Known about the structure:
By secondary structure, this protein is an alpha+beta fold. The chain has two domains: about 5-140, no CATH class; about 150-280, ADP-ribosylation fold. It has helices at about 20-30, 30-40, 40-45, 70-75, 115-120, 130-145, 150, 165-170, 200-215, 275-280; strands at about 20, 50-55, 65-70, 85-90, 100-105, 125-130, 155-160, 175, 195-200, 220-230, 235-240, 255, 260, 265-275. The strands form four sheets. The chain has a six-stranded antiparallel β-sheet. Strands 7-10-14 form a three-stranded antiparallel β-sheet, sandwiched between helices. A three-stranded antiparallel β-sheet has the order 9-12-11. The longest helix is centred in the last third of the chain and has 16 residues, at about 200-215. The chain is globular. It starts with 17 loop residues before the first strand and ends with a helix. Mean pLDDT is about 80; it is low at about 1-15, about 150-155 and about 185.
Amino acid sequence: MRxxxxxNEAALGEKEMTQCSAPDLQKLLGKGKMNAMIRHPWFxxxxxxxxxYKHGISRSGFTQVEVYPFFREVxxxxxxKIRPTAMLQFTFSxxxxxxxxxxxxxxxxxxxxxxxxxxxxxxxxxxKTWSKEENAVEKAWNKHNxxxxxxxxxxxxxxxxxxxxxNIQQHGITGMNPTNFKKASGGQYGNIGEIFCMTSKKxxxxxxxxxxxxxxxxxxxxxxxxxxxxxxxxxxxxxxSDPLGQAGNEGQWLKKHNVHVSPEQIIGAEPVTIDxxxxxxx
Length: 282
Protein backbone atom coordinates (compact mmCIF):
# COMPACT_ATOMS: atom_id res chain seq x y z
CA MET A 1 0.00 0.00 0.00
CA ARG A 2 1.38 3.41 -0.96
CA UNK A 3 1.70 6.14 1.67
CA UNK A 4 -0.59 8.39 -0.38
CA UNK A 5 -3.47 5.96 0.11
CA UNK A 6 -3.66 6.46 3.86
CA UNK A 7 -1.44 9.43 4.71
CA ASN A 8 -3.48 12.55 5.47
CA GLU A 9 -1.70 15.62 6.82
CA ALA A 10 -2.70 19.28 7.24
CA ALA A 11 -0.64 21.66 5.12
CA LEU A 12 1.58 24.25 6.73
CA GLY A 13 2.00 26.36 3.58
CA GLU A 14 0.37 29.70 2.92
CA LYS A 15 -1.90 28.09 0.35
CA GLU A 16 -3.38 24.63 0.33
CA MET A 17 -0.80 21.99 -0.51
CA THR A 18 -1.71 18.98 -2.65
CA GLN A 19 -0.37 15.55 -1.82
CA CYS A 20 1.44 13.80 -4.65
CA SER A 21 3.67 10.82 -5.33
CA ALA A 22 7.40 11.10 -6.01
CA PRO A 23 7.00 10.58 -9.81
CA ASP A 24 4.23 13.20 -9.96
CA LEU A 25 6.32 15.60 -7.89
CA GLN A 26 9.23 15.25 -10.30
CA LYS A 27 6.89 16.14 -13.18
CA LEU A 28 5.70 19.22 -11.30
CA LEU A 29 9.16 20.38 -10.24
CA GLY A 30 11.31 19.19 -13.09
CA LYS A 31 14.47 17.16 -12.66
CA GLY A 32 16.64 20.13 -11.63
CA LYS A 33 14.53 21.25 -8.64
CA MET A 34 13.89 17.64 -7.60
CA ASN A 35 17.62 16.89 -7.54
CA ALA A 36 18.38 20.11 -5.66
CA MET A 37 15.90 19.09 -2.96
CA ILE A 38 17.12 15.49 -2.68
CA ARG A 39 20.76 16.59 -2.46
CA HIS A 40 20.07 19.14 0.25
CA PRO A 41 21.75 18.10 3.56
CA TRP A 42 18.48 18.33 5.49
CA PHE A 43 16.78 15.93 3.06
CA UNK A 44 19.81 13.64 3.28
CA UNK A 45 19.26 13.33 7.04
CA UNK A 46 16.15 11.29 6.12
CA UNK A 47 17.41 9.48 3.02
CA UNK A 48 16.76 6.06 4.58
CA UNK A 49 13.14 6.92 5.38
CA UNK A 50 10.08 6.62 3.18
CA UNK A 51 8.66 9.98 2.12
CA UNK A 52 5.26 11.53 1.52
CA TYR A 53 5.10 14.80 -0.42
CA LYS A 54 2.90 17.86 -0.84
CA HIS A 55 3.28 20.52 -3.54
CA GLY A 56 1.97 24.05 -3.78
CA ILE A 57 2.63 27.71 -4.58
CA SER A 58 3.00 30.32 -1.84
CA ARG A 59 1.06 33.59 -1.99
CA SER A 60 4.22 35.34 -3.08
CA GLY A 61 4.59 32.93 -5.99
CA PHE A 62 7.35 30.62 -4.77
CA THR A 63 7.15 26.89 -5.46
CA GLN A 64 7.04 24.96 -2.19
CA VAL A 65 7.29 21.27 -1.33
CA GLU A 66 6.56 19.67 2.02
CA VAL A 67 8.45 16.43 2.70
CA TYR A 68 7.14 14.11 5.42
CA PRO A 69 9.75 11.42 6.22
CA PHE A 70 8.41 8.40 8.04
CA PHE A 71 9.42 4.93 9.07
CA ARG A 72 6.46 2.60 8.71
CA GLU A 73 7.21 0.45 11.78
CA VAL A 74 7.56 3.52 14.00
CA UNK A 75 5.11 6.09 12.64
CA UNK A 76 1.97 4.01 12.04
CA UNK A 77 -0.73 4.70 14.62
CA UNK A 78 -3.44 2.37 15.95
CA UNK A 79 -5.78 3.32 13.08
CA UNK A 80 -3.24 2.31 10.45
CA LYS A 81 -2.52 5.94 9.49
CA ILE A 82 1.00 7.20 8.95
CA ARG A 83 1.73 9.93 11.52
CA PRO A 84 5.14 11.45 10.70
CA THR A 85 6.82 13.41 13.47
CA ALA A 86 8.98 15.56 11.17
CA MET A 87 8.33 17.79 8.16
CA LEU A 88 10.64 19.76 5.86
CA GLN A 89 9.22 22.63 3.83
CA PHE A 90 11.38 23.51 0.80
CA THR A 91 11.06 26.84 -0.99
CA PHE A 92 12.59 27.21 -4.47
CA SER A 93 13.84 30.25 -6.38
CA UNK A 94 11.67 31.87 -9.05
CA UNK A 95 14.05 30.88 -11.80
CA UNK A 96 16.54 28.06 -11.97
CA UNK A 97 16.74 25.06 -9.68
CA UNK A 98 17.93 26.49 -6.37
CA UNK A 99 16.59 25.78 -2.89
CA UNK A 100 16.47 29.19 -1.18
CA UNK A 101 14.95 28.21 2.16
CA UNK A 102 14.06 25.12 4.19
CA UNK A 103 11.90 25.11 7.30
CA UNK A 104 12.05 22.17 9.72
CA UNK A 105 9.03 21.26 11.84
CA UNK A 106 8.36 18.58 14.44
CA UNK A 107 5.05 17.34 15.74
CA UNK A 108 4.88 18.77 19.23
CA UNK A 109 1.77 16.82 20.24
CA UNK A 110 -1.49 15.44 18.94
CA UNK A 111 -3.78 18.46 18.31
CA UNK A 112 -7.03 18.56 20.25
CA UNK A 113 -10.35 19.49 18.64
CA UNK A 114 -9.97 23.18 19.49
CA UNK A 115 -6.52 23.34 17.86
CA UNK A 116 -7.81 21.58 14.77
CA UNK A 117 -10.40 24.35 14.34
CA UNK A 118 -7.80 27.12 14.77
CA UNK A 119 -5.66 26.26 11.78
CA UNK A 120 -3.73 23.73 9.69
CA UNK A 121 -0.48 23.98 11.66
CA UNK A 122 -2.02 22.64 14.89
CA UNK A 123 0.20 20.09 16.60
CA UNK A 124 3.35 21.15 14.71
CA UNK A 125 6.23 23.20 16.10
CA UNK A 126 8.80 25.12 14.05
CA UNK A 127 12.34 24.03 14.94
CA LYS A 128 14.78 25.88 12.67
CA THR A 129 15.32 27.53 9.29
CA TRP A 130 17.99 27.05 6.63
CA SER A 131 18.42 29.84 4.11
CA LYS A 132 20.80 30.11 1.19
CA GLU A 133 22.20 33.49 2.32
CA GLU A 134 22.69 32.53 5.98
CA ASN A 135 24.30 29.23 5.03
CA ALA A 136 26.85 30.97 2.77
CA VAL A 137 27.81 33.42 5.54
CA GLU A 138 28.09 30.61 8.09
CA LYS A 139 30.32 28.53 5.81
CA ALA A 140 32.65 31.48 5.20
CA TRP A 141 32.88 32.23 8.93
CA ASN A 142 33.56 28.60 9.82
CA LYS A 143 36.28 28.32 7.19
CA HIS A 144 37.98 31.44 8.52
CA ASN A 145 37.69 30.33 12.16
CA UNK A 146 38.68 26.67 11.75
CA UNK A 147 39.89 25.20 15.05
CA UNK A 148 42.12 22.24 15.85
CA UNK A 149 39.05 20.26 16.90
CA UNK A 150 37.35 21.01 13.55
CA UNK A 151 40.41 19.79 11.67
CA UNK A 152 40.47 16.58 13.73
CA UNK A 153 36.77 16.03 13.02
CA UNK A 154 34.09 17.16 15.45
CA UNK A 155 31.19 14.97 14.31
CA UNK A 156 30.27 12.43 16.97
CA UNK A 157 27.74 9.58 16.81
CA UNK A 158 25.18 8.50 19.40
CA UNK A 159 23.01 5.37 19.21
CA UNK A 160 19.36 5.44 20.26
CA UNK A 161 15.99 3.90 19.46
CA UNK A 162 14.45 5.45 16.35
CA UNK A 163 11.30 6.27 18.29
CA UNK A 164 13.43 8.67 20.41
CA UNK A 165 14.77 10.63 17.42
CA UNK A 166 12.01 13.27 17.14
CA ASN A 167 12.38 14.14 20.83
CA ILE A 168 16.19 14.31 20.47
CA GLN A 169 15.96 16.58 17.44
CA GLN A 170 13.62 18.87 19.33
CA HIS A 171 15.14 18.79 22.83
CA GLY A 172 18.65 17.39 22.34
CA ILE A 173 20.37 14.42 24.01
CA THR A 174 20.28 14.06 27.78
CA GLY A 175 21.85 11.43 29.99
CA MET A 176 18.87 10.93 32.26
CA ASN A 177 17.66 7.69 30.69
CA PRO A 178 19.01 4.23 31.65
CA THR A 179 20.54 2.20 28.84
CA ASN A 180 19.20 -1.19 27.75
CA PHE A 181 22.48 -2.22 26.16
CA LYS A 182 24.41 -5.08 27.73
CA LYS A 183 28.17 -5.39 27.79
CA ALA A 184 29.79 -8.08 25.72
CA SER A 185 31.18 -9.45 28.99
CA GLY A 186 27.75 -9.33 30.68
CA GLY A 187 25.98 -6.75 32.83
CA GLN A 188 24.38 -3.41 32.00
CA TYR A 189 26.27 -0.68 30.17
CA GLY A 190 26.59 2.77 31.74
CA ASN A 191 24.72 4.72 34.40
CA ILE A 192 21.93 7.28 34.43
CA GLY A 193 23.43 10.69 33.73
CA GLU A 194 25.96 9.45 31.17
CA ILE A 195 25.88 9.97 27.42
CA PHE A 196 27.89 7.69 25.14
CA CYS A 197 29.12 8.45 21.64
CA MET A 198 31.74 7.41 19.12
CA THR A 199 34.05 9.22 16.74
CA SER A 200 33.54 6.58 14.03
CA LYS A 201 30.21 6.15 12.28
CA LYS A 202 31.11 2.55 11.44
CA UNK A 203 31.60 1.78 15.15
CA UNK A 204 28.22 3.36 15.92
CA UNK A 205 26.48 1.29 13.23
CA UNK A 206 28.08 -1.93 14.50
CA UNK A 207 27.05 -1.13 18.06
CA UNK A 208 23.53 -0.28 16.93
CA UNK A 209 23.28 -3.65 15.17
CA UNK A 210 24.36 -5.51 18.32
CA UNK A 211 21.90 -3.55 20.46
CA UNK A 212 19.03 -4.15 18.04
CA UNK A 213 19.78 -7.87 18.15
CA UNK A 214 19.56 -7.79 21.95
CA UNK A 215 16.25 -5.91 21.78
CA UNK A 216 14.49 -7.65 18.88
CA UNK A 217 16.63 -10.62 17.80
CA UNK A 218 16.75 -8.86 14.42
CA UNK A 219 19.12 -6.49 12.63
CA UNK A 220 18.59 -3.68 10.16
CA UNK A 221 14.87 -3.11 10.78
CA UNK A 222 15.37 0.63 11.39
CA UNK A 223 14.25 0.40 15.01
CA UNK A 224 17.65 1.76 16.11
CA UNK A 225 19.20 4.97 14.74
CA UNK A 226 22.58 6.67 14.70
CA UNK A 227 22.34 10.35 15.66
CA UNK A 228 25.20 12.58 14.50
CA UNK A 229 26.04 15.80 16.35
CA UNK A 230 28.83 18.34 16.62
CA UNK A 231 31.08 18.68 19.66
CA UNK A 232 34.74 18.81 20.60
CA UNK A 233 35.82 15.20 21.32
CA UNK A 234 38.61 16.52 23.57
CA UNK A 235 35.99 17.49 26.15
CA UNK A 236 34.77 13.87 26.47
CA UNK A 237 36.24 11.00 28.48
CA UNK A 238 37.46 7.78 26.92
CA UNK A 239 34.96 4.99 27.55
CA UNK A 240 36.93 1.88 28.49
CA SER A 241 34.24 0.12 30.55
CA ASP A 242 33.65 -2.64 27.98
CA PRO A 243 36.97 -3.50 26.25
CA LEU A 244 35.61 -6.80 24.92
CA GLY A 245 32.76 -5.02 23.17
CA GLN A 246 35.20 -2.52 21.67
CA ALA A 247 37.47 -5.13 20.11
CA GLY A 248 38.23 -4.11 16.54
CA ASN A 249 36.83 -0.61 16.91
CA GLU A 250 37.84 1.97 14.30
CA GLY A 251 37.67 5.18 16.38
CA GLN A 252 37.30 6.29 19.98
CA TRP A 253 34.39 5.41 22.25
CA LEU A 254 33.57 8.35 24.51
CA LYS A 255 31.32 9.26 27.41
CA LYS A 256 30.38 12.33 29.42
CA HIS A 257 28.48 12.73 32.67
CA ASN A 258 25.69 15.26 33.29
CA VAL A 259 25.88 16.80 29.83
CA HIS A 260 23.18 18.10 27.52
CA VAL A 261 23.72 17.99 23.75
CA SER A 262 21.54 20.83 22.49
CA PRO A 263 19.18 20.58 19.47
CA GLU A 264 21.42 23.06 17.64
CA GLN A 265 24.27 20.54 17.80
CA ILE A 266 22.23 17.77 16.17
CA ILE A 267 23.23 17.20 12.53
CA GLY A 268 20.89 14.36 11.65
CA ALA A 269 19.71 10.83 12.38
CA GLU A 270 19.69 7.65 10.30
CA PRO A 271 17.76 4.48 11.06
CA VAL A 272 20.21 1.60 10.73
CA THR A 273 19.49 -0.66 7.77
CA ILE A 274 20.94 -3.98 6.60
CA ASP A 275 22.93 -2.19 3.88
CA UNK A 276 24.49 0.14 6.46
CA UNK A 277 25.44 -2.82 8.65
CA UNK A 278 27.02 -4.62 5.71
CA UNK A 279 28.98 -1.48 4.78
CA UNK A 280 30.21 -1.03 8.37
CA UNK A 281 31.64 -4.55 8.41
CA UNK A 282 33.92 -3.90 5.43
